[in-house]
Protein 1
Amino acid sequence: MRILLDKFSKAFGAVSVIEDMTLEIGDGEMLALLGPSGCGKSTTLFAICGIHKVSGGRILFGDRDVTSLPPQERNVGVVFQSYALYPHMTVRENIAFPLRIAGKSSVEVARQVDEMAQLVHIEPLLDRRPAELSGGQQQRVALARALVRRPHVLLLDEPLANLDAKLRLEMRSEIRRIQLETGITAVLVTHDQVEAMSMCDRIAIMDAGRIVQIATPTEMYNDPHTAFVAGFLGNPPIAFLRGVVSGDAIVVPQSDVRLPKPNGARNLAEGTRVSVGIRPENFGPAGDVPVRGRISFVETQGRENLYDLMLADGSVLRSIQPVRSDIAVGDEVEWSVASDRIFMFDDKGERI
Amino acid sequence: MDASRDKTGLPPASGGAGRAPARRRLGLLDSSRGLGVLLLLPALVLVILFFLMPVVLTGVFAFTNMSTATGISGGAHQVSPGSLRVLTERYGMGELAERLGQPTYLVDERGLAALEETGIAPGIVASLRRGHLDESFASRREFERAIRALPDRPDTRTVKRISDAFSRSLANARFTDAGALVAAAEAIDPDLTPEEKDALASATYTGWSWTTDNFRRLTSSRDTTRVFFNTLFFVAMTLVFFNIGYAMFLAIATHYMPERPAGIFRIVWFLPRISPVVIYVLLWKWVAWDTGFLNAVLSDFGVRPRNWMLDSATQAWFFVIMINGFVGASMGMLIFASAIKAIPETHFHAASVDGAYRWQQVRHIILPQLKWPILFVTCYQTLSLLTSIEQTLLATDGGPGGATEVWSLWIYHTALNNYAGNLQYGYGAAMALVLVVIGIVLSLIYLRLFNYNALITRPRIEL
């Protein structure tokens, strides 16, 4: 079902968290609300499910205005960060809870619980209590409980935050599989860009209560609208250089780095300050603009190494390269930037 | 400077010798065990004096017939109409009782000496000694006839004085021990059998003695059944309606309230607990009595003024349960409220989006997770209600007509305060002992039920 937030605002007392936010989530789409802590992404999620009352604007499920409906009547499934499984109920009772509350017959309840257990692969655990489950298993139960009512929308609030790295990887693909299998519209709230990029059709990146950019993961990675977006996406993260427009080039002061002006920067006046974003994979032995510096840090990642290169002015560039053993900390190197892949931002962080 | 002088000034040998005896003097206190006992001693003394001793003494008193009449120290032997009746009825020695009960006059040296001191004519004394020494008379009339027949012919007043001096009746005489009593009795009746002596000694004893009669009396008394069911009713009603029911209502109501009003609300319901009992109960009495608040309001509607608290047994119960209930509800409220607070808020969010409205959340989320707090409050309050006395004592004092007499109050009325004036410590102690035993048994059951260790470990809610 399509979800539409129409000029949605939310304030807690005098503190305005979100103002005039408009967001449309297509039917069957999985959208990530990505942003740092306190950006309003969980608030948005709680407004969609009805736990928070909105201060302004409308929320539509399909064509139905649910703005004033209590959560009980919205038919949404929510997976909470802590899973919020009821500790006094078995797994079976937890999954059956929404159906029992809805007054379904016990035969119907049993059938649907079994179906859900099959979907999320927890059939052998049905008679355990939440305390007897691992984190990943609890996660699956929470998913099953959220989905058992066949909700209009599935909301996931940082669902992977409490799992260890290996489980996180596994549950990432599991949640995506289940979402695709059920064809449900889903909203994932996360602060982890890897999760957002790997699980979702589109990402809405939020900062300070505003949506900064909505795009598919690839689009967003390759064409960030702001320095904030560029900095948020990508691992290892992008590095920024402070530059000044000088003739037809961007010069990094107190260093010999001269980057060609990109198309968007043609009209910039001489001396304008800009910042230049260079992703680690676009800086290395291959490239067209040479940069000299000293290796300040080497991080081994197994297949690849991450190098920090300190420039003459003290700023740091990152480079990720296949493992090589000929470079150590303190070495002077000259590597190159692929100048067609750099992003330029003005001093407000807007893309040029 | 100082430190170095200290070091050099004290020869090592004398230092070592000086320290060794000091350590030996401390002796036991050098070990943590000895010191621990010493530090615990004041607490131990208090525990023994004020916690253990009352229970032990209750147990001891329960097996005596102590009362105001017997006193709590030892008694004496006294031949009273009562003890003579005991002699007749319990020992079947009616004849002996009759003999001892009758006044007896014995002319002996002791009497003569006493007579001499009263300044009576020596001639009379001399003629009495001469004519009647060691003679005894069974009645006053017989003895006085003999006195009148003396050569001096004393007047009537003198005759009375003389006969009084020789009165050797055992009636109302007090003896500090059984030997003196028996000696006196033998003076009247020299042919007492050993059985008669024993019977006499125990029948006339005024002090307390060991007995199991209290328990026999307790099991056969009809009051016991009545008071027992009163107590059961009182505990059950107060517990169900107030200590659990009303406390739960308050806890849940305040849970769904905004923080501030909820806090104020809790404090208001805590007032009965922290206000002085006497004032709290007096306020209730003032509400209920015939010139009180209730009547002031109701008289406008033409209702006859009455004491609502003591008007009927039902009304008395109503007030007793309310007065006790509002005091007890605050504890349950606090415990339940904090237990509800311990449920993560996301559980309520989850229940809401799962479709559960408030009453369904209460039914499916709150109540099942409050199993242990409910059990705990039930157990704790049962024990405290069983021994609760002050509110009921001040409100109805067990009235009207003993309708609200509960066990603890009954103990008080029996042992410490009753109309007849004879306080039956022994009987009251036996009642108290029953209560103590019930309390201990219940506590043991509860501790087992709870698996006490499980109560003090952290709840197993994993995130």
Protein 2
Amino acid sequence: MNPEPFLQIDRVIHEKGRLAIMSLLAASPQLSFTEMRDTLNMTDGNITAHVRTLHEAGYVAVTKAFHDSRPVTTYALTAAGRKAFTTYIDLLEQIVRQTRPQ
Amino acid sequence: MESDWAAEHLQVIRTLMERSAIYRRALAPIMMVTGSLGVLGAAVGLLAGIGAGRDFVVFWMAVCLGAVLVAFVLARRQALKDREPFWSPPTRRVTQALLPPLFAGLVLGLWAALVGWGEVGVVVLPIWIMLYGCAIHAAGFFMPRGMKLFGWAMIVVATALLLPALFRIEVGAAALRYVAHGAMGFAFGVLHLLYGVYLYFTENRKNAP
């Protein structure tokens, strides 16, 4: 078996919580903090920590704005984030194909 | 097996991406208020003696407009309460799905109201319900909890209303008025109320105003 796909897996995305965040953002142009928290049933602290890691990796853009005088934080995938996510899925598919019985 | 975790990851990604595209506002209050307006509309239509012609069309278009405005206000209140933008991507998808059949219904209603359709104005009734069912079914692709089934229920009711014409069953003018308002009250009132009650006991109420 070719170990190459395993070695290429992006460790930033591979973590369960961050993968969930990336998956949500891949299907939506942007999501608010509340939407993300409610969909994933994660704690505020968890979301914040994972988003910070993804933001530092350049995968997620964070926008803070005011909506009707209330602070709203929204998240979106950056171009680099989308590319990394697509590559990650391609690698998973390669792994599944490699090990699937012919 | 080595590939199991990879396949599971892909499945999780797929599920989450689908969930991300789903409209999540609480629908129970919207359905119940809309249903109440439908039942109230039917009662007022019958008590006020509104006939089955042009008056019928104009009256029910006004009721529908009221229901749309109330639904808009309720959904916006929920968005404000959750500190989320109202015009979110799922809201846009649902609106885009609803729009073509609802627009067709509006054009049909305006045409019937402006051109006049005499006592056969009531013909718009099954077509309206059918178009509404199509709109709900289309929106159901971006909404949870049996919305598509609800759309089908509307289409079935509309089909049932076409049967008397198919078998050439004559209905008198007075009876027609009762049938017309009764059908609208049942489709837009009772069905919405029933679905609203179902949602009230089953959906997550954190979004309720």
